[in-house]
TrEMBL record:
PANTHER family: PROTEIN TUNICAMYCIN INDUCED 1, TUNICAMYCIN INDUCED PROTEIN. This is Tunicamycin induced 1. Residues 1-19 form the signal peptide. The keyword Signal applies.
Length: 412
């Protein structure tokens, strides 16, 4: 028993020494420096920052939305983030060298080599798509077509495609929208649906598409299915090297028929269909989506009285991207001065340091980890245990009056 206890103490001592000798990877070191600078901690404050152990970092994927609105020559940026549905202990490449070189332990963790992607979504013409970083993209109409390396795809009116594997979708040129903005009724974002119909009508009357999107890293572009079993066949026309036009014989068919198809096996997001109503040109979006309703309410609050008056506003930037986030904890320790212990119980041991626990949510950008939000964690309130002699004023138990509780008839 004694030898086992000695072995356990030696193991704990070895583990603590090993943890203290492990240097921070550059990504974690830069993250730590950014947080210390953001909290305004200087060397004169005598605050010790510990933690940031990459082995304790949790990794999750989410979808980030960025919008820039111009209202009365004033640019208002928006940044929205979906909740991370799952956190895992993932061996990221920016952490891998540090954990394996010093511990010598190979832990079975989830693979972090693949970049996060958006859920499949449906786009309907008329519009143009600029393709980036997709040299091995598959084109299916509905059968696979060899069209070379595509840089630009023009969707004619009535053509709809399903995009899979995209890492981000963004607006290439600003768009103007008219006001007033209709109010949300019956659980649908009527204002945004009206703006979408206005944009759709303007696109049909123009000689060239006014809507241009930039899509990064799609793995496939396929003809969108018109029902649960078949896909609508699209015609391909080569306009130039790397430039094709896709058209459909069903020009007069409403795009709503494409939104009836639910993409199975994917996590529902802002881009995936949930009901039969659609929001052109992203026919995967429906007017009752909770995120869409929330964005319309936010837009109403920003516009204020202008939302009900005749006018216009401009959408300068719109970007939807899949991102990797890291959640990691750390703590700050500070020496306690005598003035901070006023009213402290005399019987309690006075602490020498004050420890505050934090958790940081950071976004992975290449080889960097950029902090997004720092949250202070609620401390665990300790339970005080006081000796009976302190509560009774150090009175002998023999002098305490006996208390006899009433008998219990059900007790044997």
């Amino acid at each position: 028993m004694k030898s086992l206890l000695c072995f356990g103490m030696a193991f704990l001592l070895f583990h603590s020494c090993l943890a203290s000798e492990i240097p921070y990877p550059k990504a974690i070191s830069d993250l730590r420096d950014s947080i210390v600078k953001g909290l305004g901690i200087t060397a004169e404050d005598e605050v010790k920052i510990t933690g940031f152990d990459p082995r304790e970092a949790e990794v999750g994927h989410s979808v980030e939305y960025r919008f820039d609105l111009e209202i009365d020559h004033q640019v208002i940026p928006f940044k929205l983030l979906e909740d991370v549905k799952r956190w895992d202990y993932v061996d990221l490449p920016i952490f891998r060298a540090q954990t394996q070189a010093h511990t010598g332990l190979v832990q079975k963790r989830a693979s972090a080599g693949a970049l996060p992607v958006l859920a499949p979504f449906i786009l309907a013409g008329p519009m143009e798509l600029w393709i980036h970083d997709a040299n091995n993209m598959r084109l299916s109409l509905p059968h696979d077509v060899e069209a070379g390396v595509l840089k630009k795809v023009v969707l004619a009116d009535g053509a709809a495609v399903t995009v899979k594997g995209a890492r981000s979708v963004s607006l290439r040129q600003p768009l103007d929208f008219p006001l007033p903005l209709n109010r949300t009724e019956n659980g649908f974002a009527n204002g945004l649906l009206t703006l979408a119909e206005h944009l759709r009508h303007a696109s049909r009357t123009q000689a060239s598409p006014i809507l241009s999107l930039r899509i990064v890293g799609p793995t496939s572009i396929a003809a969108a299915p018109s029902d649960s079993t078949t896909s609508t066949s699209l015609k391909l026309k080569r306009l130039a090297p790397g430039l094709v036009e896709l058209s459909s014989p069903l020009k007069n068919k409403e795009v709503e028929s494409f939104s009836r198809v639910n993409i199975e096996g994917e996590v529902p997001t802002f881009l995936t269909p949930t009901q039969f109503s659609t929001l052109w040109p992203l026919s995967s979006i429906n007017g009752s989506n909770p995120n869409l309703l929330g964005f319309e309410k936010l837009l109403h609050s920003v516009l204020g009285p202008k939302a009900d008056k005749k006018g216009s506003f401009r959408l300068l930037k719109a970007d939807v991207s899949a991102q990797t986030y890291v959640k990691i904890g750390f703590k700050a320790e500070k020496k306690v001065s005598e003035g901070e212990l006023e009213g402290y119980p005399a019987w309690r041991t006075k602490p020498e340091t004050l420890t505050t626990h934090f958790e940081v949510l950071a976004k992975v950008e290449g080889e960097k980890v950029v902090p997004e939000k720092v949250m202070q964690l609620k401390p665990v309130v300790p339970e005080d245990n006081v000796a009976p002699n302190l509560l009774n004023g150090n009175v002998s138990m023999s002098k305490i009056q006996d208390v006899h509780p009433p008998p219990n008839p059900f007790q044997l």
